[in-house]
């Protein structure tokens, strides 16, 4: 007879780590088993060098607010990041997480644009956002001297007479999601969770009693195994689509994913790093997916500072860096083929953009960096490969963002999509709890409010509460502006 557990988590990234932590706090007696294909957790999208580490709060990312007069999406993203900050604050206080500086550091968020049209847009965006309580600290300038104080590398040897402008929010953050994931899993295993590294889940099948038969195989020795789970969460990045399809839940019908890879230019030269303390975003190229917005970022990973610029889009049919060349083909089903073909036919700008990116050699990538940093020298920068992102395709549209797919009975859920992903993991996992454990929410609410004090509230609607919450978490996490 197969072993029976309460929860199976598939994938060793920030999403599984966050959900597992919440469930361990809510139901300490539940037996949790986590599977990870690799020999360590946080080796794909959650790895520090596979993402830009931006604490996505819509402070600098223009794609969350294409209409300068409509702040709704930006406010929503910021609200979600505040929930993550509150959860991390609580977990630090409880000793679940280490010192905050091991995973989060204060890093101003900036937006820098050039040309009259974009300057006008950024000014209008600033005027809209500064009236929103969660964006009260935002600053705007078209003065080269001010922008030079904010980010000197942007202005050195900048061509005179060119219209430019910038916004800056001092309360931005840089987050090492790899370190955060490892710390959460360390706590889970210390408190009874079973983390099975080098184990790959091969199949999921629903049983008559509503549980799930999880069939897996060890990567060492190829030893097969299976267990039953009352609840399954598929947080396997790009591979989530494959496992959800194997589950045969009707809710996955119509979904497909399109993989987009990326590269960054990186420098750890102390003389250069010392001149830039910010994450600076700009406008995306025509046809570029939102995740390809160019940005020059301060990073702090394992106590070492560096700068990253990018991303430069790459293409691979793999859904994970360590995936299969057949991934993009193996997902095709009669129910999603038409939608996928429509996406290809209606996103010619994206195709053109990807082709242009693939044709860029290293010298042209350095030229792109010099549009941000005119003094950049090629010898100071190296190219690193970032993680794979699997963008959601549904209804003939290519969707950007994250989406939870769960069965009607709440016995299984999975996460598809990409950014803002990790930054909003707390909110996304709270939604999983709402969708899959609705009958327990009333019982769990006191504990959830202990972990996330403004659980269920909208901070932006209450200026005093927004100010108090951001101040409290900033002080606790050591990210005071």
Topology at a glance:
Layout: E1 3-10, H1 14-26, E2 32-36, H2 72-93, E3 104-106, E4 109-114, H3 116-129, E5 139-141, H4 144-150, H5 152-155, E6 164-169, E7 173-175, H6 177-190, E8 194-197, E9 199-206, E10 212-218, E11 224-234, H7 240-247, E12 256-267, H8 270-273, E13 279-281, E14 295-301, E15 304-314, H9 327-330, H10 334-346, H11 348-358, H12 362-372, E16 382-385, E17 389-394, E18 397-399, E19 402-406, E20 412-417, H13 425-436, H14 441-451, H15 463-477
Parallel strand pairs: 1-2, 1-11, 2-8, 4-13, 11-20
Antiparallel strand pairs: 3-7, 4-6, 5-6, 9-10, 10-11, 12-15, 12-16, 12-17, 13-14, 14-15, 17-18, 19-20
What does this 3D model show about the protein?
With 481 residues, the protein is of the alpha+beta class. It has a single domain, classed as 3-Layer(bba) Sandwich (FAD/NAD(P)-binding domain), CATH 3.50.50.60. Helix content is 34%, strand content 25%. The chain has 15 helices and 20 strands. The strands form three sheets. Strands 4, 5, 6, 12, 13, 14, 15, 16, 17 and 18 form a ten-stranded mixed β-sheet that branches. Strands 1, 2, 8, 9, 10, 11, 19 and 20 form an eight-stranded mixed β-sheet that branches. The chain has a two-stranded antiparallel sheet with strand order 3-7. Helix 1 (14-26) packs parallel to helix 6, helix 2 packs across helix 13 (425-436) and helix 2 (72-93) packs across helix 15 (463-477). The model has no long low-confidence stretch (mean pLDDT 92).
């Amino acid at each position: 007879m197969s072993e029976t557990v309460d929860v199976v988590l598939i994938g060793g990234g920030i999403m599984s780590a966050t959900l597992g932590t919440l469930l361990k706090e809510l139901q300490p007696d539940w037996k949790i088993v986590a599977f990870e294909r690799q020999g360590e957790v946080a080796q794909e999208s959650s790895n520090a060098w596979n993402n830009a580490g931006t604490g996505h709060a819509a402070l600098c990312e223009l794609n969350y607010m294409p209409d300068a007069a409509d702040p709704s999406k930006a406010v929503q993203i910021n609200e979600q990041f505040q929930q993550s900050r509150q959860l991390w604050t609580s977990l630090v206080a409880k000793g679940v997480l280490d010192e905050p500086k091991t995973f989060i550091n204060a890093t101003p968020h900036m937006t820098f644009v050039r040309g009259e049209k974009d300057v006008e847009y950024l000014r209008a965006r600033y005027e809209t956002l500064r009236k929103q309580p969660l964006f009260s600290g935002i600053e705007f300038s078209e003065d080269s001297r001010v922008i030079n104080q904010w980010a000197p590398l942007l202005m050195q040897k900048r061509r005179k007479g060119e219209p430019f402008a910038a916004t800056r929010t001092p309360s931005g953050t840089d987050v090492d999601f790899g370190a955060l994931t490892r710390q959460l899993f360390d706590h889970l295993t210390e408190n009874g969770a079973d983390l099975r590294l080098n184990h790959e889940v091969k199949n999921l099948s629903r049983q008559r009693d509503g549980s799930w038969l999880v069939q897996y195989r060890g990567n060492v020795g190829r030893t097969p195994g299976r267990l039953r789970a009352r609840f399954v969460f598929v947080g396997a990045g790009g591979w989530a689509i494959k496992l959800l399809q194997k589950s045969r839940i009707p809710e996955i019908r119509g979904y497909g994913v399109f993989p987009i890879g990326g590269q960054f230019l990186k420098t750890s030269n102390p003389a250069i790093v010392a001149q830039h303390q910010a994450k600076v975003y700009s406008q995306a190229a025509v046809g570029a997916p939102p995740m390809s917005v160019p940005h020059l970022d301060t990073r702090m990973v394992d106590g070492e500072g560096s700068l990253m610029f990018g991303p430069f889009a790459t293409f691979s049919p793999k859904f994970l860096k360590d995936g299969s060349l057949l991934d993009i083909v193996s997902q095709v089903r009669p129910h999603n083929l038409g939608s996928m073909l429509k996406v290809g036919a209606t996103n010619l700008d994206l195709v053109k953009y990807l082709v242009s990116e693939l044709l860029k050699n290293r010298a042209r990538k350095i030229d792109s960096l010099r549009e941000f940093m005119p003094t950049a020298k090629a010898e100071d920068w190296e190219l690193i490969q970032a993680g794979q992102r699997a963008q959601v395709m549904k209804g003939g549209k290519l969707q950007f963002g994250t989406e939870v797919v769960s069965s009607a009975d709440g016995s299984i859920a999975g996460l598809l999509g990409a950014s803002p992903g990790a930054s909003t993991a707390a909110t996304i996992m709270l939604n999983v709890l709402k969708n899959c454990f609705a009958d327990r929410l009333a019982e769990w609410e006191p504990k959830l409010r202990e972990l996330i004090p403004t659980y269920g509230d909208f901070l932006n609607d209450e200026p005093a509460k927004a100010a108090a919450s951001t101040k409290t978490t900033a002080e606790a996490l050591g990210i005071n502006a």
